[in-house]
Amino acid sequence: MSAPNCGKGHRSGAALLSVALLACGCALRAAAQEASQGSPLPVTAAEYDWGLNLYGSAVLKPLSSSSNSASLARPDSVTAAIKARTHAWTTQLEAAARVGGMQLDPMGELYAADGQDGVAKAEFAARLATKGLSQDDRAYTLLLATRVFARPENAERIQAALSYMAQLDALPPSAIVWKFQGHVTLGEAYYVTGDGPAAAVQLMQAYAMTPHMRFEQRGVAYDPMTFSMLADVLSGAPNGRARIDSIGKELLSLAQVSPELVAKDSANFWTSQERIKYLKVTLQLTAHLGHAAPPITAMHWYNTDAPTAVSTAAPGAASQALNDGTIRLIEFGEYSCYPCRMALPGMERIREASPSNVQIWYVTETEGSWGTTVYAPEEEVRHLEHYYVERKHYGMRIALWAGPKDSTMDDGLLPRANPSAAAYPILATPTFVIVDGKGVVRHIAIGYSKDIDQRLRLDLRYLAAEAGRRASAEPLSGSPLGRTALRDR
Fold first, then answer.
1. Which residue among 157, 198, 259, 479 has the highest number of C-beta atoms inside a 10 angstrom radius?
2. What is the largest CA-CA distance in the chain?
3. How far apart are CA 87 and CA 98, in angstroms?
4. Strand order in the sheet with 327-332
5. How many CB atoms lie under 10 A from the CB of residue 425?
6. CA–CA distances in Å: residue 253 to residues 126, 249, 277, 294, 414
7. Could you give the 3-state DSSP secondary structure of residue 152?
């Protein structure tokens, strides 16, 4: 369920796409070998399971089975198409041979995706019953089963997930990293389905484990996506800001490395510095929750009039204030970030379905080149305008920063930093920010998936309804997820 993102030190959408293209290349080579040798190797459950995850993350989309043409399935039928494809895979694997050993784990996930929950549980049970199974292998299976069944909208499935999590929690203390990841998995599941209090419980349980981890194990606690989820949930809850700040302070302390560990391995020093750096940026971003949103600054404005407030950040720059009574969903992204572009069709569908007091914005920037060719800012702008406006016909408002190229200390040239990206420090893209009509930041999310898309829609619906009843009830200052009211949807 994790959302694809492009980030410094985190999983990149480009990497996922490379894997997808590599998979396609492997498939072509396999076909050539089959033609020449007539004895292709059988496809394993793990390979089909990887395909399932590529489809599920929208890196790939299944071909429509209703036509002989190679057309992509419609967005509203992708889920059904994936299920049909998965059923064909499980049927093929059943006919080929009995799956065993390490292949039981991916087979269980395939069966769950096909809706055969009982069979999936049996596969996981068979794996857990394996004689001599190591603790890490046991923890892996329990974590996978927790993730597979972490569907709060289905009472039976979420109970299964909680049962697997209980077994994971019962493992010895040496499995603490697996336990942390399990609670984050459940927290994310509750988060995307709108149960803020339940998400907070799971994420707080995860972070409570951090002090008990060895220094080298604590890297999992510094993922900005995880912390932003918790901050988003707590920001709308009583005493939420104090709780966010307290957790952030403790994580900063735990990122410090002892002189003894540095003496043992100097790499620990740089690991510590990296964790501190990324955490401080994450804290700066999430500190906006419940507070006034900084303006958006850019040189080029599409599908909207250019603002009149002149910015001194660069020649031709102007700033758009966000406290004018309009609710805004803003995506921060870049052309070179595949998940950023992947999110735009969903943003466009949200725009088309939104009421007049809701605006959808895409805030982006030039990167200094187009493909392998280095361009001046205005030349690159023409390529970006052609892509977003003329080729894709996006109707959302677009703010494009085209910073002049400044000299670097080694006689190079780099585009001047985007002040919007500095005001909303972006560790990973896409990053989504929702601002209410009073200009207050109410939601922050990092990465994109179908689940995040649904989360954004629900929050916008909540804020639009809140604006309608403002005369009789003062709006919250934090995320709607901090209130159980959102669950009544």
1. 479
2. 75
3. 16
4. 300-302, 397-401, 358-365, 327-332, 431-435, 441-446
5. 17
6. 42, 6, 13, 29, 34
7. coil
Q: Please state, as a whole number, how many other Cβ atoms lie within 10 Å of the Cβ of residue 304.
A: 13
The string of pLDDT tens digits covering residues 447-483 is: 887 778 888 888 898 888 887 765 444 444 566 665 4
Contacts (Cβ under 8 Å, ≥6 apart) of 153: 193
Q: Out of 109-118, 288-297, 467-476, pick the least confident.
A: 467-476
* Residue showing tokens 């799971």: 202
Query: Could you give the CA distance from residue 348 to residue 285 in angstroms, rounded to a whole number?
Result: 25
Instruction: Specify the 3-state DSSP secondary structure of 34.
Output: helix
Alpha-carbon span 68 to 73, nearest angstrom:
12
CA 36 to chain centre: 42
Q: What are the beta bridge partners of residue 289? A: 441
Residue 469 C-beta-side C-alpha neighbours within 13 Å: 10
Q: What are phi and psi of 248, to 5 degrees?
A: -60, -40
Question: Which has the closest alpha carbon to 217: 209, 229, 228, 225?
Answer: 209
What letter represents residue 439's amino acid? G
Q: Looking at 53-62, 125-134, 176-185, 401-410, which range is the least confident one?
A: 53-62
Residue 74 makes CB contacts below 8 A (sequence gap 6+) with 64
Helix (H, G, I), strand (E, B) or coil at 75: helix
Phi, psi of 481 (to 5 degrees): -65, -15
* b (16+ CB within 10 A) / e for 363-380: bbbbbbebeeeebebeeb
